[in-house]
């Protein structure tokens, strides 16, 4: 086992080098597809021109619907590239490699995947397209999110929350990981630490949104953090098999939200907190302490805030599992997934598949089924139902999979296992 694990850094470095070559060839020879870039630049031009009313920041594809971090990020990109597509593609090619490097680092810090399966992270046609041929803001948001996850692996909570909040400020889908991140924080920090880290995240949002909050606060909050948007049925990749009248209905949205919350609670209680006796037991243990006689006693507010968790260090596999599975649950329950949304969870797919107890052949079949579904354009009844079924099978596999230890094993037990 140890020899195989030692190969991973070398394999990761080799994959990065090969993908650098592939990215260069894509930028040089594959035609760019105009979708949102002009709209982004129009919205940035309005912002740089002094407009602070979110209802008046618009582009070819409609009004601006992203938080303020998006404007700062794409203003910087416009400054560097002059608003031209080709240099922006080079910039996004660098971003792609940076993101892949972070992901490979995360994978090499866990023992879930065999070394050869790291190659799956470089095999998506759609992901290469999203980065280099579409220049979507999802790429920036997910790179910051993956950076936050890498920081959480080392339990640099405050820096992780700053990076996480930066990702949210570019695109709100990152909030799908918020419940998982909060649970990990409750396991690995005192309540005082949790509040401090959350305050850092909130401060990032306030500072980035300040110009808009001071001038037109209602417009900014309603547009940048609109949770009730209804997407167009035609662009849905995951629920194209659902009739359009059902797809756009409020009942369908509420049902998906209820399922989402139920799944999060079930996974949090029966899997992510099983070692602690369940979610309620985990929370109760932080509100009370045992005295010498073994009985629970109440504690003061100061003790409550300063009380450190019993096991402060979390295992890296547990951290990645909770973050990736929590995000995947949100993706499965999303009312509409557009093509660029594949970047929200593609990089977690190999990890999730190898967490399931399925045989390797079935894992690879599911990986190919998901990838093919995302590469059929436009999506249709069959492609969307294949994707939906693949998602459900993976989710079921994650539910029945063996539960990893949330805390690092002792060194002697690790050596015995190797």
UniProtKB/TrEMBL annotation:
Source organism superkingdom: Eukaryota
Record localization: Endoplasmic reticulum membrane
EC number assigned by the record: 2.4.1.258
Residue spans crossing the bilayer: 12-32, 64-83, 90-107, 135-153, 159-186, 193-214, 253-272, 344-369, 381-401
Designated name of the protein: dolichyl-P-Man:Man5GlcNAc2-PP-dolichol alpha-1,3-mannosyltransferase
Metabolic or biological pathway: Protein modification; protein glycosylation
GO cellular component: endoplasmic reticulum membrane
GO MF assignments: dol-P-Man:Man(5)GlcNAc(2)-PP-Dol alpha-1,3-mannosyltransferase activity
UniProt KW keywords: Endoplasmic reticulum, Glycosyltransferase, Membrane, Transferase, Transmembrane, Transmembrane helix
Membrane topology reported for the UniProt record: Multi-pass membrane protein
Reactions performed catalytically: an alpha-D-Man-(1->2)-alpha-D-Man-(1->2)-alpha-D-Man-(1->3)-[alpha-D-Man-(1->6)]-beta-D-Man-(1->4)-beta-D-GlcNAc-(1->4)-alpha-D-GlcNAc-diphospho-di-trans,poly-cis-dolichol + a di-trans,poly-cis-dolichyl beta-D-mannosyl phosphate = an alpha-D-Man-(1->2)-alpha-D-Man-(1->2)-alpha-D-Man-(1->3)-[alpha-D-Man-(1->3)-alpha-D-Man-(1->6)]-beta-D-Man-(1->4)-beta-D-GlcNAc-(1->4)-alpha-D-GlcNAc-diphospho-di-trans,poly-cis-dolichol + a di-trans,poly-cis-dolichyl phosphate + H(+)
A Pfam family recorded for this sequence: ALG3
Organism: Dioscorea cayennensis subsp. rotundata (White Guinea yam)
């Amino acid at each position: 086992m140890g020899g195989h694990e030692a190969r991973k850094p070398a394999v990761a470095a080799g994959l990065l080098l090969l993908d650098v070559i592939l990215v260069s060839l894509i930028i040089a020879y594959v035609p760019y597809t105009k979708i949102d870039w002009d709209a982004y630049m129009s919205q940035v031009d309005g912002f740089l021109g002094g407009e602070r009313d979110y209802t008046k920041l618009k582009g070819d594809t409609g009004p601006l619907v992203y938080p303020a971090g998006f404007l700062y990020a794409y203003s910087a990109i416009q400054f560097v590239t002059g608003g031209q597509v080709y240099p922006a593609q080079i910039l996004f090619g660098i971003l792609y490699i940076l993101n892949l490097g972070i992901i490979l680092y995360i994978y090499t810090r866990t023992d879930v995947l065999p070394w050869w399966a790291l190659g799956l992270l470089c095999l998506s046609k759609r992901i290469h397209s999203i980065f280099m041929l579409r220049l979507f803001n999802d790429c920036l948001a997910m790179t910051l999110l993956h950076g936050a996850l890498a920081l959480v692996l080392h339990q640099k909570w405050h820096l992780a929350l700053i990076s996480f909040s930066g990702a949210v400020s570019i695109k709100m889908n990152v909030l799908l990981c918020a419940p998982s991140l909060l649970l990990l924080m409750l396991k690995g920090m005192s309540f005082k630490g949790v509040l401090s880290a959350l305050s850092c995240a909130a401060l990032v949002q306030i500072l980035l949104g300040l110009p808009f909050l001071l001038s037109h606060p209602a417009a900014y909050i309603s547009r940048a953090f609109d949770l009730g948007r209804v997407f167009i049925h035609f662009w849905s990749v995951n629920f194209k098999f659902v009739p359009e009248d059902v797809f756009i209905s409020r009942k369908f949205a509420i049902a998906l939200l209820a399922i989402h919350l139920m799944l999060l609670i079930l996974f949090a209680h029966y899997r992510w907190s099983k070692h602690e006796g369940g979610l309620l037991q985990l929370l109760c243990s932080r509100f009370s302490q045992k005295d010498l006689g073994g009985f629970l006693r109440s504690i003061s507010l100061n003790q409550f805030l300063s009380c450190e968790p019993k096991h402060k260090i979390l295992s890296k596999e547990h951290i990645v599992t909770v973050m990736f599975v929590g995000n995947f649950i949100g993706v499965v329950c999303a009312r509409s997934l557009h093509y660029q949304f594949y970047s929200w969870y593609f990089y977690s797919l190999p990890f999730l598949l190898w967490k399931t107890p399925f045989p390797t052949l079935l894992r690879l079949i599911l990986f190919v089924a998901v990838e093919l579904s995302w590469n059929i354009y436009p999506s249709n009844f069959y492609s969307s139902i294949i994707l939906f079924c693949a998602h459900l099978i993976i989710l079921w596999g994650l539910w029945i999979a063996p539960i990893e230890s949330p805390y690092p094993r002792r060194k002697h037990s690790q050596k015995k296992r190797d």
